[in-house]
Amino acid sequence: MESNVVGILITILVYLGGMIAIGAVFSRKNKDVSDFYLGGRKLGPLVSAMSAEASDMSSYLLMGLPGLAYLCGAAEVGWTAIGLAAGTYLNWLFVARRLRIYSQKTNSITIPDFFSDRYHDKKHMLSGISALIILIFFVPYTASGFAACGKLFGTLFGWDYHLAMIISAVIIIAYTSMGGFLAASFTDLIQSIVMTAALVIIVVFGIHTAGGWDAVVDHAKSIPDYLHMMTTRSFDKGTGTFTNGVSYGFLPIVSTLAWGLGYFGMPHILLRFMAIENDKKVKTSRRIASIWVVIAMGVAILIGFIGSRLSANGSIETLYGKDVNDSETVIMKIAMLLSKHSFAAALVAGLIFAGILACTMSTADSQLLAASSSMSENIVKGVFGVKLSEKNAMRVARAVLILIAGAGVILAWNPDNSVFQIVSFAWAGFGATFGPLMLSALFWKRSNKWGAAAGLVVGGAMVFIWKFIIRPLGGAWDIYELLPAFLCALLAIVIVSLVTGKPEESVQTEYDEVRALMKQ
User: Fold this and answer.
1) How far is the C-alpha of 217 from the C-alpha of 301, rounded, in Å?
2) Three-point CA angle 327, 14, 146, nearest 5°
3) pLDDT tens across 283-307, in order?
4) Residue 61, pLDDT score
5) How do the domains of the chain map onto residue ranges?
6) Are residues 154 and 412 in contact, defined by beta-carbon separation less than 8 angstroms?
7) What SS3 class is residue 478?
8) Nearest-5° angle of CA 284, CA 288, CA 292?
């Protein structure tokens, strides 16, 4: 094994060992299921902010965004980043504090719990439907994270993809099943720091190797439509060629900005809102989260531009051919280039690879917890009414987490799947089902449980219908499935709620009590 690879491996092993150690430490703090799934609502403003954003970004931050910027330029990736930044801020502004207060009032520890508790659904219809939605979309989402880890180790060490993917999954399972929500949240904080360091190192080294800032800018300007926000270039996987001058007009922009709607329905992010120790500290968390997201995404896009220049001057290979997904490895190629300078540089490059792992692991651990809580709390205990002691409930929680991770490993077995495409579909699924219902539950007193159920079903169904039936028609129908599915779900909630009558008096009274608490 070459010395630079040894240096990278040392850094990664130290990082992974630290994650497992954190899991072991926090395993002692889980006294009951509420601690395991929600951390006893003890997250401070910094941890809640960075944990939410680290679990949000996933491998998309260091692989998806730079890869898309490298391949196609500013238009699609730029509008996506704007939508995500706006969605992050608005989610913290409108949802975070109100959900924290409401979920404590109803004593809810999972998102499906909150929906049932909000509408006093004693038959657990809403929690059951919500839990199934979480399983449907989180298992493949988690699988994409495992796949990203497998690709990373395969690219770096030449390991078999499947072996690398399984080892990564085992490590994530280990610290998450031991430490639960607190371990996941604290490791997310550490991982956000590692991600930030990786971004800074890559940019500084990349600009230097590219010949300076002017060289990066001049190269980007020399590529037709590369820096335009209203025109772009499309890549044909079949021929491995680009088509320049493709219009990026009103519909594509609206479709891309719609990514921001997804935030209102992301369970692993919403859980962080529920876990904040004091609702008065939400403003601090909002500022930290919003600033970090804008800077991190901006730097990630810049890395794509830098990578394009490095390919042009021969520093790294050209990362497109008949496999468009090659572009997602641009940050790895730059890190490997750095590692060849010296053993010390290899140790630093290891931090970049650890940052890629951090992106993936911070999301995968949160998704595993959300999915396992849905199965054990909302289906096993809620829908089927199985009575469990706190000790047995913890055992079931950990067992379910391991089973779901196993399903994710099976789905991740194909190494050819694109990280961007899987994340895009799962993001639409949660955004279109939970997003409209979360906004209705928090801001519309007149909504009822029948409207809520209709919104969940219609939103989930429309994601599949639009993605696989309508969107392939092209033209005006080529819109990201999140937007039409979100609007259909919201319409279903409104119509069905109005047709089926007002919610119970106790539901309305509780809503008024929460609104009064918001004014304090």
Assistant:
1) 13
2) 40
3) 999 999 999 899 989 999 999 999 9
4) 77
5) 3-383+414-518
6) no
7) coil
8) 170
pTM: 0.84
- pLDDT per position as a tens digit, 89-107: 999 999 999 999 999 999 8
In angstroms, how far is CA 253 from the centroid of its own chain?
Answer: 21
pLDDT value, residue 346: 87
Return the ∠ at Cα 317 (arms to 312 and 323), rounded to 5°: 110
Which CATH code, of 3.40.190.10, 1.20.1730.10, 2.60.40.10, 3.40.50.261, is assigned to 3-383+414-518? 1.20.1730.10
Mark out the alpha helices in 31-124 (DSSP H runs).
Answer: 33-38, 45-57, 64-72, 74-90, 97-106, 111-118
CB 209 within 8 A of CB 56: no
Q: Give the CA distances from residue 76 to residues 69, 156, 243, 249, 301, in Å, rounded to whole numbers and listed in that order.
A: 8, 29, 15, 11, 11
**Residue 324 pLDDT:** 47
Tokens of 1: 């094994």
Tokens of 337: 């280039």
Tens-digit pLDDT profile for residues 197-219: 888 888 999 999 999 999 999 99
